[in-house]
Amino acid sequence: MLSISARQNTVTTETSRQQPTETTQALRNLPKVELHRHLEGSLRIETLLSIAMEYDITLPSVTAETLRPYVQLMPDEPRSMQQFLSKFAILRQFYRSEAIIKRVTREVIADAAEDNIRYMELRFTPKALNNIVNRDYQEVISWVCEAAKEAAEANNIKVGLIVAMNRHESLDIALNAFEAALALRGQGIVGVDLAGQEANYPVSLFRVLFERARAEGLGITIHAGEWAGPDSVRSAVEIGATRIGHGIRTIEDPDLVQMLVEKGIVLEVCPSSNVDSGAVASLKEHPLEKLYTAGVRTTINTDDPLISGITLSDEFARVLNATSLTLNDLKRMQILASRAAFLPSSERTALAAQFEAWFFPPPTRPLRPQDFAQA
Questions:
Q1: Least confident range of 114-123, 130-139, 149-158, 360-369
Q2: What's the rounded mean pLDDT across residues 108-136?
Q3: What is the pLDDT of residue 25?
Q4: Residues 6+ apart with CB under 8 A from 22
Q5: Which is catalytic among the residues 226, 268, 315, 356?
Q6: 39-81: per-residue pLDDT in tens?
Q7: What Cα–Cα distance (Å) separates residue 328 from each residue in 6, 75, 286, 316?
Q8: What's the mean pLDDT when you consider all of the chain?
Q9: Which of 29, 15, 32, 28 is nearest to 321 (CA)?
Q10: How far apart (Å, rounded) are the C-alpha atoms in residues 32 and 46?
Q11: Closest CA to 43 of 2, 94, 84
Q12: 226: annotated active-site residue
């Protein structure tokens, strides 16, 4: 049985409906931090239809429910990297104007706020947004910055922006996007990311970019250990990443696990996305709990809410169903996420203190010292 909410693009499974009512409501009400969400994978289906009508874009279907299988993984579809990435084939057609890019940015942030996310780092790929409009990267990035600022203020949410580049595209493209991001860092840009085809394009190809990012004080997160093994994670850390997108294959290398613990590296884990992309077979087999228990700083994120049909609250419910992690464990991960935010030190400390006060007010604060070591 499936219950689908078009407003939030969510799919609720029978198992998530079995959550006790008070637990479900508690997850919706829980203040949240999200560090790993892609703008391009978070659009509303209704918005796609609206844009298609306005710009005369030919779609394979013309209603929300019949378009859904083309942009969201359905329960009976195979879970593989190829199937997951195929959903972006239609989504790439929609970035046709400044107005559209600003609209989808505002809507993604509004949807996060509706899920009671209080701080979010939203990443986006300038190359993907610019393929049709073909403008200067700085102009395109500025559109996202302007819309994000407006939406954050309107929805009482704090938002940092991460500019992402793809491994399978040239260093020149990445450097152009990076320079544009650097010029706009005062408008909400907090970090840079490297995504794309992990197995065939090593992070070392982009060493010069990350050396610049470190020198400029930008946050560095790199997709690694999702579709390639633990060596990919090690290379990302060695080149300067303090956070790793996914990083789940770290569990295959005990020495790497220990290195991440000692260095305080934070994993931006996206459990449902990892299942949907075929990186793991099921949530019950996901290494999140083992990594957390080993002392690795783990956080929970949605990655691409439209593709996976989830909100962050849904993701929490799924993790509670599939693992022996508790609500307190998830709260600790949220505090860890706040400590790992790409914010100035004073703002990061204030954010973490707010989440500590919300979740574990004295004198009932069941914390471990390593939960609050500076990442």
A1: 360-369
A2: 97
A3: 74
A4: none
A5: 226
A6: 999 999 999 999 999 999 988 888 999 999 999 999 999 999 9
A7: 30, 30, 19, 11
A8: 91
A9: 15
A10: 25
A11: 94
A12: yes
H helices of the chain, in order, are 14-17, 21-29, 45-55, 64-71, 81-86, 88-91, 98-114, 126-130, 137-155, 171-183, 207-216, 230-238, 254-263, 271-276, 288-293, 305-308, 312-322, 327-339, 345-359
What Å distances lie between residue 332 and 153, 179, 327, CA to CA?
A: 27, 36, 9
Torsion sign over Cα 46, 154, 300, 17: negative
DSSP three-state, residue 300: strand
The pTM score is 0.90
Are 117 and 32 a contacting pair, CB within 8 Å?
A: yes
Domain boundaries, the chain: 35-357
Q: Which pLDDT does position 9 carry in this prediction?
A: 45
* Token reading at 251: 């569990």
Report pLDDT for 300: 98
- Residue 84, token pair as written in the block: 């997951």
Tell me which residue has tokens 């400044």: 98
Q: Estimate the share of the chain in helix, then strand, then coil, as percent rounded to the nearest 5.
A: 55, 15, 30
CATH C-level class of 35-357: alpha beta
Tokens 């079995």 locate to 18
